[in-house]
Amino acid sequence: MQTLTPQVYWAQRHEDIYLRVELSDVKDTEVTLKENILHFRAQGHGAKGENEYQFSLEFLDLVRDKPVCKTTERQVNITVKKVEPCWWERLTKQERKPLFLSPDFDRWQEESDAEMELRAEEEKISKLRVESRVPRDPLRTLKRGYIFMYNLVQFLGFSWIFVNMTVRLFILGQDSFYDTFHTMADMMYFCQILAAAEIVHASIGLVKTVLIPTVIQVLGRNVILFVIFGSLVDMQNKAVVFFVFYFWSAIEIFRYPYYMLSCIDSEWKLLTWLRYTIWIPLYPLGVLAEAVAVIQSLRIFTETGLYSIDIPWPLSFSISFSYVLQIYLVLMLLGLFVNFRHLYKQRRRRGLRNKKKKMN
After folding, report:
1. What is the three-class DSSP state of 264?
2. In the chain, what's the furthest Cα-to-Cα distance?
3. CA–CA separation, 95 vs 247, rounded Å?
4. I need a labelling partner for 252 at 20 to 30 A (CA). Which of 22, 110, 187, 232 fits?
């Protein structure tokens, strides 16, 4: 039986050399590494049939003495560790490449690709080190469970309002406009009182959201609900109540389930798209309906003097609450700009994150 040289394929990383020997049904494999020279001998089925195959390679730079050899039915895989992690310009010390040696294109990388891979690995290790130094929050699961339940309760409340108003609209038509407050107010009171917790969540860092837009939205809605609708009987029978409640609930039935899924690190793409798209028409329409409600209430507050402040002598004048509401109208438009800008930035950041995920 004659001794032949097998076909050998090689590839490298910064720290390792990979050799793939094309032999099947291998027996009696012997791999040694002495004085930076790899010696291989084995009996198996190669290009010249069943024979004994062997070869030797003197590496370009220093390598460690213990190669790792794994034999499969079709090939022999050898991994050799470099002493100094670096990129070699060639595998062997001799400049002329041996005839039996070829690049392993399945595992081949350019130096720039290897640099990127090495950098990514270093960043991953660095991130793990930083995370290991940051103490894990023992209440994390409890906090996420609480936020999940809060969003679930709000979703159920606003869904009840939205579905009931929609059904009543189909059955009663325009007549449903004028008794919206009397049929929906209790649930809306509950949801909006509960929404005050969102200010607390943002202020203590329980959720990652900006505090100012949250305060504007929660307090603005509560002024409309409790001060204008709740304290003026004449406003409770107006059609504007229907539109205010309907726009509020239409926005929230997409916002709260989106936050629920975020608590469990899950995502439904259609819901995400609706959450970041549906507010574009609905939010300005909701603010417009609120502005109409404020304008309609000005005359009532002026005539009744409700919430007006009388300044005693020597100044002797009164401040009508309708003047306060006129200032509130201006602030409402500013709040619309602030919240719209905040929501638009959220939508844009979300789009950029999705684009990066697709690129990766």
Report:
1. coil
2. 124
3. 76
4. 232
Tell me the angle at which helices 321-359 and 211-222 cross, rounded to the nearest 10 degrees.
140
Sheet holding 101-103, edge to edge: 68-71, 76-81, 16-21, 8-12, 101-103
**Type of residue numbered 90:** R
Residues in the chain: 360
Cα–Cα distance measured from residue 183 to residue 192, given in angstroms and rounded to the nearest whole number: 16
Give the strand order in the sheet containing 3-4: 3-4, 49-58, 37-46, 24-34
The C-alpha torsion from 286 through 287 and 293 to 294, rounded to 10°, is 160
* Catalytic residue IDs: 283, 290
Q: Tokens 């949801």 correspond to what residue?
A: 191
300: CB partners within 8 A, 6+ apart? 232, 234, 235, 306
Q: Is 330 helix (H, G, I), strand (E, B) or coil?
A: helix
Q: What is the pLDDT of residues 186-195, one digit of tens each?
A: 999 999 999 9
Write the pLDDT tens digit of every residue in 135-160.
Answer: 566 788 899 999 999 999 999 999 99
